[in-house]
Amino acid sequence: MNRPLEGKIIVITGATGRLGTAFCNAVLEAGANLVATDLDKPATQQKLRALHDAFGQDRVLPLAVDTTNKESLDSCAEAAVARFGRVDALVNNAYPRNANYGRRFEEVTYEDLVENVGLHAGGYFLACQRFLELFKRQGHGNIVNMSSIYGVIAPRFGIYAGTEMTMPVEYAVIKAGVVHLTKYIASYHRGHGMRIRCNAISPGGIRDGQPQEFLDRYNASATSKGMLDPKDINGALIFLLSDASEYVNGQNIVVDDGWTL
Ligand SMILES: NC(=O)c1ccc[n+]([C@@H]2O[C@H](COP(=O)([O-])OP(=O)(O)OC[C@H]3O[C@@H](n4cnc5c(N)ncnc54)[C@H](O)[C@@H]3O)[C@@H](O)[C@H]2O)c1
Fold it and tell me: How far apart are the C-alpha atoms of 124 and 112, rounded to whole Å?
């Protein structure tokens, strides 16, 4: 079996969500040891324990981590090093949002926009900053930030017509910011004599019970499958976490079945 991440130590945030669940299984199957983290809620912690039971405690460290909290991130890095000796990579995959997230443009308040950008883009910044402290001490480290096609292109609002759905303005601001945060971090560590890199993945839409009329309109712009499944993003993640991408730095890989063409 091909195990391109054999022996690597990887931290994943938002590990029990739709993509996080697929990512955890994929990196473990690819041979990595995993620090699987998510919020301190009974349901998320139960899922993390199930992963721990399935793959064994020598390979999985489940932790409660809030990516908007500096102490929580620092404790995570410390616990990861205490268990595995180092961290090779951080996958910034959490999706924090407040209760008002996702309203139509006209209904988004200044306060909600600022809070959601702070929680999500701010949380990605904070996780990068805290783990880079460790990566600088180690002399190496790899970050993968989850962005989105909506951090790359403008929304096509016509696909939402007649549904309750929209593409939130907060999301556009956050995900475009995440792409550029990624480039900033890659460039900032240029010439420091360390093997530190930072890349992003921008998935297209993930199938999740959306209305058929929306799916039909969305899928018409894709080149084969249309809306993707979480596992369809695994290949890009494994590539960026593996040594096959050793000299890929500051890039954003769009995985969208050609939707943004
Ligand atoms: N699902 C999609 O269609 C899609 C498409 C493109 C990009 N993405 C991106 O992929 C990433 C994962 O998306 P998803 O669909 O799996 O989301 P999800 O909502 O299914 O899961 C997100 C996870 O993040 C956790 N989380 C929320 N706030 C947190 C915090 N403060 N600290 C730590 N964890 C926190 C949640 O508990 C949850 O388990 C996000 O960055 C999202 O923007 C998703």
Answer: 18
